[in-house]
Amino acid sequence: MKLQTRAVHAGDRKATGQHVPVTTPIHTAASYFYPQSEMLDKIFGHEEHGYAYARYDNPTNAALEQLLASLEGADGALATASGMVALQATLMTCLAERRKRVLCAEALYGATVKLLMNVLEPYGVETHFVDLCDLDAVAAAIAEFQPGCVLMETVSNPLLRVGNLSRIAELAKAANAPVIVDNTFATPLLARPLEHGASYVVHSLTKYLSGHGDVLGGAILCSGDKLEEVRAMSRVVGPVLGPFESYLSMRGIKTFPLRMERQCRNAQQVAAWLRTHPRVTRVFYLDDPQHPDRANVDALFRDGLYGAMVSFEVEGLDKAGVFTLMDRLQLVVRATSLGDVHTMVLHPWTASHRDVSPRHKQRTGIRQNLLRLSVGIEDAEDILADLAQALG
Ligand SMILES: *Cc1c(COP(=O)(O)O)cnc(C)c1O
Questions:
Q1: pLDDT tens digits for range 259-306
Q2: Using the 8-state DSSP alphabet, how is residue 36 labeled?
Q3: Across residues 23-29, what is the average pLDDT?
Q4: Residue 207 near ligand 1, beta carbon < 6 Å
Q5: What spacing in Å lies between the alpha carbon of 125 and ligand 1's midpoint?
Q6: What pLDDT does 305 receive?
Q7: How many angstroms does the Cα of residue 152 sit away from the middle of ligand 1?
Q8: Cys bridge to 107: 144, 156, 174, 229, which one at CB 3.0-4.6 A?
Q9: Last residue of a domain, one of 253, 276, 303
């Protein structure tokens, strides 16, 4: 079945008995009752599948996890309280019996860099940053640094660079380092990293998958044996998603392919329009025939869908100029997130990349006059009209 169909059906109607709810209810119970103690004993002993305690799992989360696994082509999933805790749990599982070294992309989500530097480094985890679009540099870094795992994003933020995932996964595999891919920006509709050699996929459900800006959540997806290790840790630590958020995520995902297809089409129109605007000097969007990673984009992205993030530079604008432009927007929302139904704008220099050193910003190409749009599902003409009046 196609992803669009699975998004609507997977995970639902797993209950048994006379009355089966068509959509999965919110199960809030902290613990579960069985008429015979023998049954709970078997569940505790993992001899039989069943629910015992909400930190281990619950039927609402199980339905969402089945849905997510179906979309990504994974054996299973763990739904977590945020995208960040999904990344932390994955890194800790990967590094448990490996060298405490993470080789990661130079351009990573800001909080991910902080997770590595501020949270994991004090526990002895070393991080080495590399330009993932430079395969020779990746090969050299793997040989010299001997990482315990590799961490990357399908597409980087906000300049939309795309590495050669299959080749990186081969290089990492030869060094016994699993590859973790944060697929939040691409989503499983556009790219499925597990099919290209990734060992783990991590998501922030907060973004496109939930899609309405009203849920904080994350997920880890991988093969069955790896998931068992993740779950063993999760059962003890409890980074799990709450059942209300689980329900909202599942509800959001049913329309995710519809929304995403439209967001991608809108983004393509916005990028095309920006390219013709006299004040706009550069446009970053994945449909660009001159994109520096064209071959990698074509290998990874499906069905001519290139995502809904568009970044652009406006000639000669300093910080104050950017703020004036942003404040003129009436439809486009100034907000620190992405992937929602509404179009959003962000100034990477002062927001997502605020804590990144000026040198690192310069090296990775984040300039003061750069703006990032997360294009929503509105009518494209209305988005363009708002951008036009703000740009003047
Ligand atoms: C938002 C985001 C995260 C963090 O997810 P939260 O749900 O906010 O914890 C991680 N990676 C990427 C690429 C993101 O956009």
A1: 999 999 999 999 999 999 999 999 999 999 999 999 999 999 988 999
A2: S
A3: 96
A4: yes
A5: 21
A6: 96
A7: 13
A8: 156
A9: 253
